[in-house]
Here is the input.
Amino acid sequence: MYREKLVEYMDTHQQEMIEDICELCRINSEKMPAEEDMPYGPGVAECLDAALDMAEGYGFEVQDYDGYVGCVDFDSTLPKQLDILAHLDIVPAGEGWKITEAFEPVVKDGKLYGRGTADDKGPAIAALYAMRAVKESGIPLKKNVRLILGTDEECGSSDIKHYYAIEKEAPMTFSPDGQYPVVNVEKGRLEGHFTAEFEKSDALPRLVKIQAGTKINVVPGKAGATVEGLELSVLEEAAKKVKEETGIEFQFNPEEGFCQITAVGEGAHASRPQEGNNAITGLLSLLCRLPFAPCPQIDYLKKVANLMPHGDVNGTTLGVDMKDDISGRLTLAFSMLTVDGSGLDGQFDSRVSVCGNEDNMLKVIKEKMAAEGIHLLNDSMIPPHMVDGDSLFVNTLLKVYESYTGKKGECLAIGGGTYVHNLKNGVAFGASMPETDNRMHGADEFAVVEELVTSAKMFAQVIVDLCC
Here is the structure.
């Protein structure tokens, strides 16, 4: 219904939409320290104000929720029906840009380059233009559609917590901050944090320290340790055997009785640990073979290594390996570790299958670790998220996707968490096409112009199909 009108509108407003996306992408909206009336800093505030001014200029009702979230309503007097949840904050620009600078968006070879073009300013403006297409084509709606513009998706989504403390969730919500066709299942998550304390020993040879990992959701590609009192030949001989077993490379920097060891593996996202080669677990494989003087520190290190051995990315040794037909197999990545003479502090990131819960996951790990004198500090986990794949809402999204792309529409289950993870009837719908790697969070992030336009057309069709 109304497809021809929607397609014609977007085809004639394509360039205008790209220009509006570029306006927002020129603003560095990375989270910064809070200032008065700017909970995430001046850059985020500037971007939110610009987006709301843009929407108001197109005749929409806008509202600012204390600088945390901005909203654009088609007609707030209509009953709630559909929310579109996008975000304007970005990850840092980073290094390595070649096509353009991060905040100087350009179109080249059909691609719009710049930080935020794909994640998530481009899709956010595509949703705004979908609302424009419906409004300016004179298509009457019986129920409201609201575009929610968040500003803290990249750093914990405190913006959305603020918003939903004020407003109720709409009957249906999709976020164009994921991938097509539809993500309706997201695994649960346990961000495990564990500690242990032990008596210090200065007996040689000894482990001085371990400092490894950058973020809990990243499988580390490198991990470092310092040892004292071991000959380089001993280290190299042990490293050769561990490399043969694990594929981990080792680099040594000896200096006056001490030696800095660097384990080099391959990094990966913690939701897909099987795609990497964990440098922490590789480093522990080496350290547990070295002839250190007996001490509690090394005893605990071996306990940790036994609980999360190299190559175990499914929590098998911890007793939580599980899978189901809906979401697949549980994953677990050992991602952070600090050890000194008197204690250790570690973290792991587990993406938990829909069949998982605190009884068969959290409590099992806590008991396993406690039996070894290791304390798991967590008392709760993020539960899995699932929306009925046969619902009217999901079926509508899938049919629109099939109609506009000619590709098969199907539901997806992922290990990562999206912006709608905590919403009862929230799914991710786009805006990344299955065959496109937009380099999100990387240098030369881009959105394919044709795909942005197609997304806007699909969003408009969804609004019509669900709200007319």
Remarks:
- DSSP finds eleven helices and 26 strands in the chain.
